Amino acid sequence: MYAAVVVFPGSNCDRDLAVAFEAAGAKVSMVWHKDSALPDGVDIIGIPGGFSFGDYLRCGAIAANSPICRSVADHAKKGGYVLGVCNGFQVLTETGLLPGVLLRNAKLKYICQTVGLKVETSASEYTKGYNAGDVINIPIAHHDGNYFADDDTIARLQGEDRVAFTYTDNPNGARADIAGILSENRRVLGMMPHPERAADVGHGGTDGQALFRALSRALITA
Amino acid sequence: MKARVHVMLKNGVLDPQGEAVRHALGALGFEGVNGVRQGKVIELDLADGATEADVTAMCEKLLANTVIESYSVETL
Questions:
Q1: How confident is the model at residue A222 (pLDDT cuts 50, 70, 90)?
Q2: Which one, of A212, A148, A204, lies nearest residue A181 by Cα?
Q3: Do A101 and B68 touch (CB under 8 A)?
Q4: What predicted TM-score, i.e. pTM, was given to this entire model?
Q5: How many contacts does A have with B, using Cβ atoms within 8 A?
Q6: I need a labelling partner for A95 at 20 to 30 A (CA). Which of A62, A76, A187, B53 fits?
Q7: CB of A148 within 8 Å of any CB in chain B?
Q8: Which of A91, A101, A105 is the best residue to mutate to test the B interface, defined by the most B CB atoms within 10 Å of its own CB?
Q9: Nearest residue of chain A to residue B16 (CA atoms)
Q10: Is A181 exposed, middle or buried (0-12, 13-18, 19+ CB in 10 A)?
């Protein structure tokens, strides 16, 4: 697996994401937001957490219009894999690669805690290391994680089995308890919780490891 | 040309910031504030020849997220 992790001004989980990919056996390149092209042979792009461009205008909005994001969109449209975590999820909704938007948390508080996540589907290369129905413990750390989409979009996501994770105890007001969603081809995953922060015994939890390991098994490069 | 863009959350989208402001006004003794909605105002200083259609395109592409926000353009 060859992973590229995009770095924006204000990203702060880029290294964590790279370490988690590497621990699962990936080769990783860091890519700067001003780069217009991705390295050759990239299987998966990681859009990390943080506060890209200071969350100016809307979370992820400026990043979504940076030069590298055109390449990210092309990669996704060609069937490539993209994982967006936290601010990365916000960037993916702003690019339109995933539907909906992340609003300010319903109680207006920044929340940093480990939460229970229910794995809603194992039918993706991201989630097939889990069983549907498993409850895993993964940290969240966000101010704008309140997933919103209109009724039709929510119904479509649920009907197409594209809700990857839901919160067992909704911390932020997200509609339908949604914590993470998949694209139509199931190769783009956006999620607010941080699996890369639960990927090593030193983190105090390893429930995120299965996501990176499953990807690594699926994306073996020749 | 100068333009002023007003961006507001669409009706039906919960505005927790507006709600917090409403509560704070109540706590200060301002009674009868039934609702508060908070939005953004963006002022643009544009080169000669810019049109309102250009500003609309800017709103659609960047200044507003039309999933949750509506916008209006005022030329000055």
A1: very low
A2: A148
A3: yes
A4: 0.94
A5: 34
A6: B53
A7: yes
A8: A101
A9: A106
A10: buried
Over residues A16-50, the pLDDT tens digits come to: 999 999 999 999 999 999 999 999 999 999 999 99
Alpha-carbon distance of B2 to A47, in angstroms, equals 36
The C-alpha angle A53, A57, A61, rounded to 5 degrees, equals: 65
Give whole-number Cα distances, A80 to A9, A85, A187, in Å: 24, 17, 7
The alpha carbon of B19 is separated from its chain's Cα centroid by a whole number of angstroms, namely: 16
Residue A221: band (very low, low, confident or very high) from pLDDT cuts 50, 70, 90:
low
Positive or negative, the Cα torsion across A117, A121, A126, A127?
Answer: positive
Helices (H), A81-162: 87-95, 151-159
Strands of the B40-45 sheet, one edge to the other: B40-45, B2-9, B69-75
Residue B36's alpha-carbon distances to A147, B10, B39, in angstroms, are: 22, 13, 10
